Amino acid sequence: MARPSNRDKILAEGLKVVHERGFASASVREIAQAAQVPLGSFTNHFASKEAFGLEILDLYYEQSHALLAVTLLNEALPPLERIELYIDRTIAKLHDKEMRGGCLLGNFGAEVTDHCEAMRHRLIAIFEEIRQALIHALRAAVTAGDLPADFDCEDTAGFMFASLQGAILISKTLRNDIPMQRYKRQVFGRILH
Amino acid sequence: MARPSNRDKILAEGLKVVHERGFASASVREIAQAAQVPLGSFTNHFASKEAFGLEILDLYYEQSHALLAVTLLNEALPPLERIELYIDRTIAKLHDKEMRGGCLLGNFGAEVTDHCEAMRHRLIAIFEEIRQALIHALRAAVTAGDLPADFDCEDTAGFMFASLQGAILISKTLRNDIPMQRYKRQVFGRILH
Prior knowledge:
The structure is a homodimer.
Chain A: H1 6-21, H2 28-35, H3 39-45, H4 49-70, H5 79-96, H6 104-111, H7 117-143, H8 153-174, H9 178-191
C-alpha cells in the first residue's frame, strides 16, 4: 500500500483539527503540526486556507454520503426504518466524539458562510443532496403506504434536515443527546405520524 | 444624556463585529477600531476575550429577551398568535441583516461551546429561558383549548426551539428565508395541529 502523501495527511489530520477547534481558530501551523509535515507543505499543496476548507468539506461529506447510502438510500430496508437508522447513526456518531464537535457541515454553516462564497455554495449543494436523500426515503414511504398519498415529501424533508441540524447544535451545547432523542420522538410521533 | 463609556462602545460595536465575522475571526484590534477606542482600552475593561464574549452574549440576549416579552410572553395576545408573531419577528430580524449573520446564540453554540465552559454554561441558561417562554405560550394554548389537554408542551417547546435554530442556520447558508417559511408551515400545519 502506498504511504499517504503529505497532502493526504494534511487533509485527514486537518479535518480533525478543524472539527475540534473551528475553521477560524485552527491555524495552518496547528494543522501542519497535527499532520506532522513542514509548514511549507501546507502552502505547497493548498493555494489558501479557503482552498483547504473546500477540500476538507468534501472529505467530510464523503463520510456523510456513506451514511446516507446505508440508511436513507438503502433500498433493502423499509422506508421509515431507513429514517430511524439515519437518526440513530447520527446520534451514535455524536456519542463517538463525546457529544463534542457537532456536525462539520452545520459548524461551517454558522462560521464560514458569511465570508467565503465558494464554501457557502459547496455547503448549499451538500445540504440539497442530503435533503434529496430524505425526499427519496419519504417518497418510498408514500409508495409503501406508510404515509398518505398527498404527503408533502419536499417540504417535510427540508424541515427534517434543518431541524436535525438544530438538534445537533443544541445537543453539542448541552453535551447530551436529549435534543436528538426529542427530535426522533417528534419526527415519528408527529411529523411522520 | 451621558456619553457612552469606552466600555459601552466596545460592547456595542464589538457585538456587531462578532456577529458579522464570528467570535474567533473578530480580532481585539478590529473590535477596538470599530469602537474607535485605543487598543489598550479593551484590555483595561476586559480580562480576556472570553470575558468580553460573555458580556456580548448577555447584551445580545437582552434584545432576544425583549422579543420574547412582546411575543411569547405577551398575555395580551392569544397564545398561538404569540408563537406566530415570534416566528415572524425572527424572520424579519434575519431580513434586516439581509439573511446574513444568523442568530448569535446559535453561532456561539457552533463555534465556542467546545472551547469555553463559561460561555457554554451561559448559552445553556439562555436556551433554557427561551424554551421556558415557548412552554409558557404552549401551556396557555392548552388552557385556551387551542391544543389538546394532554399536549406535551415541554418536549414540543424543546423541539421547536432547536428546530428554529436549525432553520436560521440553513437560511443563513442559503441566504433566503425558505427554511424559515417551511418551519412556520410545519409548526402550524403539523406540530401544533
